[in-house]
Amino acid sequence: MYGAEYHQKIVVAAAQIIADEGLSHLSLRTVARKVGVSTTVIYSLIGNREDLIEAVSREARGSFVREQRAVGCTENVLVDLKNLGRAYRRWSLENPALYSVMFGGYFGTQEIDREPIAPLADAVHRIHAQGRLKIEDPWQAVWAFWSAVHGATTLEIAGGCVMVGGQSEESFEVILEGMVRGLVSA
User: Which residue from 8, 109, 115, 124 has the highest number of Cβ atoms inside 10 Å of its Cβ?
Assistant: First the structure.
């Protein structure tokens, strides 16, 4: 009766609670009420509260990584680089609760997980292999690009930033272009 569809609804509801109210407010009872099921359903599909937190974390990370990998790799690495930034922004705007969970520090300080940035790192390393990277260390370029995209996206989601001319997408494109020009030789 309750399968994958409800599993997903439960995870999304839990992510929304974490994003809106914080991890301390997450309870199986609250999630069950929000989804319209009993806590028994959550226990049978996912498990206890810790299992639910892990499921939310896994979903956030997994869906973000899938979005980044879907960009693919073309002959034009600069297009790939910009498309990775666009995919980051698109996923974040479409999944603000998962974004908040993934980057909100809810799960303590953890070792840096390189899988979410692997497609970006691959693109930057391709540019480096072509001798077109303006700085010596490709990882510095990866973190610079990631930080710019992350910062702009976080500000846009928070609503605390007035984008140039009120056009968020156009402003984001300016940021992408500026990062490419700043990091890559023609």
Answer: 124
